[in-house]
Design brief:
Layout: H1 7-16, H2 22-52, H3 56-83, H4 86-110, H5 115-143, H6 149-177, H7 180-200, H8 215-227, H9 230-250, H10 253-260, H11 265-292, H12 295-315, H13 319-345, H14 353-382, H15 384-397, H16 400-404, E1 437-444, H17 450-466, E2 470-476, E3 483-490, H18 493-501, H19 508-516, E4 526-530
Antiparallel strand pairs: 1-3, 1-4, 2-3
Helix pairs in contact: 2-3, 2-5, 2-6, 2-7, 3-5, 3-8, 3-14, 4-5, 4-7, 5-14, 6-7, 6-11, 6-13, 9-12, 9-13, 9-14, 9-15, 10-11, 11-13, 12-13, 12-15, 13-14, 14-15, 17-19
């Protein structure tokens, strides 16, 4: 008889389970090396800027130059990740990063780096990360099972924060002993392992039943989905505010080490190492916390803790107390952003997850980029202590957002595709580009159910518009008050098929509530209508056909 599994063993088993998947383990290890190189480069760039330019705003702009391209480019990168091969995109991004890092290394050894060229290379490295991020994060669901996805996201957070613990210390040591150019060289070499792993990875082939969207259509679909998804809108708002206020500390760490603690690059690396230790500890404990507390409670407490730590750092003249506050800030940083990430991934189906993750990155890093500039300018005008204290108090007070916009609980939401039966009910061939297509659904609703029906139908309308429907409207027949019509349209027949294909299992409960109130005997009748122009003999209806939804389609 096997001995019973103790709670601690069960927790550890849940945390490390994704590492048993070969491809996830290989990418995880290669990413750890790459992340350590990135943190070494970050330390070297930030410290080099303190010698190239003595103003606080220029030092803070190093963090801003790294975050800005992620804000600007993540949404197009997310669309590309959803409609193209994610592995190929990840490989392209890593190649760009390696080439850019090599060029920076070469110029640094020649002594040709100035403050603005350093910012330019930092921006280019951020652009490569922006291209890589959505494809990498959305590919996690292709590397592990859905049950293991939260643990895999946490392991990736642990990965980065192990790097955050080791990288800054190594970066500070390398800069102090060998100089910034050597640190840049280490970063350039760190991309090699991940490039090799991606070349060897054979991504699972997912057959397409419909042709891919154009870039513009994919961008529009992602923005529409996020706009009409309350859970995602709240994640975007909360992550933007947290990043905006948290950036005051993260962007000015070199100044804390130099001006408040009167230290050098080793002190800088030590503080970032303390930040990383707290981050790793919180990432390891995040699974335990998520089982006991809601995502909203975790993020709210983390924001308050980060704010208090920022105030302490701004006021403390002692290295030990400042390092302890950095440890708390690191724990709060990872708890917040890993929870935002998991909430985003569990709030979006696979067809749009790359774009939604890109929007989340845009919100979070947009806040970081904007905050780095704002609080850098504030530190230049009012002093570093005032800047940190103000940001910390505002971050601690951001718990008020949770009362108005709490994070939605999405752990039990099934976002798998709704597998409805297909039926060739639409007579004749329908060309994919034929349109506009108008869908009309007729209901018989008892007068006593009309109020409930209107609320449920409008919720269903939100889902339809989120998935691609246009001009949705609910109509009541004035001559027969129990007769209702739901009407919406799509630009083409192909767009209608995409809208139908995007339906999820979680949406079925809303459809069931609406259908249950229909009193017509059988399912509500559905009609698909093709708009016809006066000079259009065929209306684009004839031509190569695609699969058609059945009579119970969305």
């Amino acid at each position: 008889m096997n001995p019973p599994i103790r709670p601690g063993e069960a927790w550890l088993e849940a945390v490390v389970a994704p590492l048993r998947t070969g491809v996830f383990f290989s990418i995880w290890v290669a990413s750890l090396a790459s992340n350590i190189g990135t943190l070494i480069q970050t330390v070297a760039a930030a410290w080099l800027m303190t010698s190239l330019a003595h103003s606080s705003d220029m030092v803070a702009l190093v963090q801003g130059a790294s975050a800005l391209p992620i804000m600007l480019l993540s949404i197009p990168a997310g669309a590309i990740a959803d409609i193209w091969d994610r592995r190929a995109l990840m490989l392209l991004a890593q190649t760009i990063l390696a080439v850019t890092a090599t060029a920076l290394t070469w110029l640094a050894f020649r002594g040709d780096i100035g403050p603005w060229s350093l910012l330019a290379f930092t921006f280019l490295l951020g652009a490569g990360s922006a291209l890589y991020g959505p494809a990498w994060q959305s590919s996690v669901g292709e590397q592990v099972s859905g049950v293991e996805l939260p643990a895999a996201v946490s392991l990736n957070a642990i990965n980065f924060n192990i790097a955050r613990t080791v990288g800054p210390a190594l970066g500070g040591l390398i800069v102090a002993s060998a100089g910034a150019p050597v640190a840049f060289l280490v970063n350039a070499l760190s991309y090699v392992g991940l490039i090799v792993v991606l070349i060897r990875w054979r991504r699972p082939h997912v057959p397409r039943t419909l042709p891919p969207e154009s870039m513009g259509a994919a961008l529009a679909a992602g923005l529409r989905y996020a706009r009409l998804s309350p859970a995602i809108r709240i994640v975007l708002l909360r992550s933007f505010v947290f990043g905006l206020l948290a950036s005051a500390l993260w962007a000015t760490v070199p100044l804390v080490a130099r001006d408040l603690l009167h230290g050098g690059p080793l002190t800088f690396g030590f503080l970032l190492g303390a930040f990383g230790v707290g981050a790793v500890a919180s990432a390891l404990g995040s699974a335990w916390l998520r089982r006991r507390y809601s995502s909203d409670a975790i993020v709210t407490v983390a924001a308050v803790a980060y704010g208090v730590a920022t105030v302490i750092i701004g006021q403390s003249p002692w290295v030990a107390l400042t390092a302890l506050a950095f440890l708390v800030a690191g724990a709060a940083w990872v708890l917040s952003f890993s929870t935002f990430n998991i909430s985003t991934q569990t709030s979006a189906p696979r067809w749009v997850v790359g774009r939604v993750l890109a929007l989340y990155q845009t919100a979070a890093f947009g806040g970081i980029a904007l905050g780095s500039w704002l609080f850098g300018e504030y530190a230049e005008l009012g002093g570093l202590v005032v800047s940190l204290t103000t940001a910390g108090l505002l971050q601690a007070g951001s718990f008020l957002l949770a009362r108005r916009w709490p994070l939605h609980a999405t752990d039990s939401t099934d976002l798998g595709p709704l597998r409805a039966a297909l039926d060739d009910h639409a007579g004749g061939n329908v060309h994919p580009e034929a349109g506009p297509i108008v869908i009309s659904i007729e209901y018989r609703i008892a007068s006593a159910d009309s109020a409930l029906f209107v609320r449920a139908a409008h919720e269903l309308g939100r889902i339809r518009r989120r998935d691609g429907a246009r001009r949705w409207i609910l109509l009541q027949d004035l001559d027969d008050r129990e007769r209702w019509l739901e009407r919406f349209e799509t630009v083409t027949w192909l767009d209608h098929l995409r809208q139908w294909q995007r339906a999820t299992v979680a949406d079925q409960s809303v459809r069931d509530r609406v259908a249950a109130m229909h009193r017509g005997g059988g399912p509500p009748p559905v009609r698909h209508l093709l708009a016809r122009a006066p000079d259009d003999a065929h209306g684009g209806a004839e031509g190569p056909s695609l699969a058609r939804p059945g009579p119970t389609d969305p």
